[in-house]
Amino acid sequence: MRQKFVTLFIFPMAFLILTSQSSLPQEKMDDSDIPDILLQKISISLNNVMFETALDSIAGKCNAQLNFNRNRIPVEQVISVDMKNARAVDVLRYVLNITNTELRVSSGNQILIVPANIDKNLKGRIYGTVISSENHRPLIGANVLLDGFLLGAATDTSGKFTMDNLPVGNYTARVSYIGYKTNFIPDVIVKSDRITFLNTELKNAPILGKQVVIEGDFFSHLKVQPTSSTNYSAEEI
Length: 237
Fold this sequence. Notes:
The protein is an alpha+beta fold. It folds into 2 domains: 29-115, Phage tail protein beta-alpha-beta fold, CATH 3.55.50.30; 123-202, Carboxypeptidase-like, regulatory domain (Immunoglobulin-like). It is built from 3 helices and 12 strands. The protein has helices at 2-22, 51-62, 88-98; strands spanning 41-50, 66-68, 78-87, 101-105, 111-115, 123-132, 143-146, 152-154, 160-167, 169-176, 183-190, 195-202. α2 (51-62) packs antiparallel against α3. The termini are far apart.
């Protein structure tokens, strides 16, 4: 009876240990890929704050720029973190594990926060043209950005642009050009090994400044002052 009791006691413990180890989050990035700015030691203590607030605080501690799309990660999830003298990347990994997100580094060395269920090997491309809606001429140097990321491109002399190595997902594109109204284009879907075509026209929007009123008589007229004179004779001189 005693032997049976011991066997039943050990088996659940072994099962618990195996289950806990298999459920531990797996890191998606090797230390060799971590930007130097995230290797700084920081201390942080946050209690019941939103995920986005935690990201802003961590970024401020190490002076890093973290890029993310608010529509794709749980920015309002409430979390707590208390870590002393830890690498910024380890603090990030802690809060990312809680929120089922992960750290990525783009080909341009930009630090991205993305959903953990996205395969980092799945990349796509956006190709498109930006023209004027008035005369349909290409707009040279127009800016095309994906909201939530510092990922973007500028159009060439033909008004064309290309954005490569983009993580798959659903984006909102922001297209802008001086003197034209900015276009926000939702639901730009990037698929693995596919080209997403994005062609848009911008409407002219003249830049208006403050009203300037020009008035005459800027310089005041000098009043004629009375003068006096005295005559001398030749003998007096």
